[in-house]
Input
Amino acid sequence: MKLSNRVQALAESATLAVTAKAAAMKAQGIDVLSFGAGEPDFDTPQNVKDAAIAAITGGKTKYAKPAHGIPEAKAAVCTKLKRENGLDYEPSQVIVTAGGKMACALAIQALIDDGDEVIIPVPYWVSYPEMVKLAGGVPVYIEGNDKNDFKITPEQLASAITPKTRMLIFNSPSNPGGFTYSPDEVKALAAVTAGKDLVVLSDEIYDRLLYGDQKFISFAACSPQAYAQTLTVNGGSKTYSMTGWRIGYVAGDAAIIKAMAKLQSQSTSGACTFVQHGLAEALTGSQDTVVKMRAAFEERATRIHARLNAMPGVTCNRPTGAFYVFPNVSGAYAKLGVKGSVEFAAKVLEEAKVAVVPGIAFGSDDHVRFSFACSMEQIDAGLDRVAKLLG
Ligand SMILES: Cc1ncc(COP(=O)(O)O)c(C=O)c1O
Output
């Protein structure tokens, strides 16, 4: 049986592959410590669970109507975007999706044709290039430099834009980099995109997970032009630890949102109805658990950053957002007798029984990604093992 060319050309998600391998080793009784997961280790807040349970009990178990999002969820998204991001959106400018991943996929499918160029800063979230290629688009990479916290400059952006450019994918705070652009840095990039015939897909799924004195600005909040050309993506997964609920959303130009809704109506029929009630509560109810989770992540960020930097052959930037560090481990390759990040990650898994994701999956073979969405005890135990191996 022949598989489609499209699916044959598609790479498997490296992050899901690493977590699956670590889980399989654990199932064989091997004591693996996994730093692969892209999901908070906290439970979903009780008020969110209660809202979804009440929705189920109250019979909200049919198709979501309309398929692009129930009014309660859309209203909650508008409230959140106004309260936290200073953005005014009408419900007609919002679509609720089955996760942030689906949100990005729908936006790319709605906007990208064969040969269209999509600018993707490196390192990038694994799914962006594959989604672009699936739509027939051409990823155009801008290399970030870890000496500059991987952030692209306005000059780099300006020189990457061609008449074929249709989209910039922007992700701050970053997966896998753990870095965050300052408001001035985002405004400088928005000044470059202003007036260009392109859409900015601004993936802001980690916007509440900021460390130190880091400030956040939504791309759409930079200027009226930025507002007009930006699709703001977010969701419940990271802020409210709702990864398994599959719930995300996008806000932006009503005509693009309508096109995405058409695609959604012919594919998933939208996000689960009672999950949307959970999202509405997450966005409008108590934010106490978000505050607690963020504080715990910040402590872990400080610890993992300090410990990695103390290891021979490793340099690590301080995480200012999300729950990842992306250390440069290339200085340890010779000692371990490995050639790149895939071999490095395999060696660390085999010998230290620690799972990390090879940086090549995110566009850089000198790095690996550690998620610190795990307990402090695990961070210490895992880093003891890695330190011993590199020692
Ligand atoms: C940058 C980024 N965007 C989007 C997502 C999608 O999350 P979900 O589909 O669970 O909402 C993730 C999850 O790992 C992510 O890291």
Observations:
- The domain at 59-284 is CATH 3.40.640.10 (Aspartate Aminotransferase; domain 2).
- The pocket of pyridoxal-5'-phosphate is lined by residues 38, 99-101, 125, 171, 175, 203, 205, 235, 237, 243, 248 (CB under 6 Å).
- The mean pLDDT is 96.
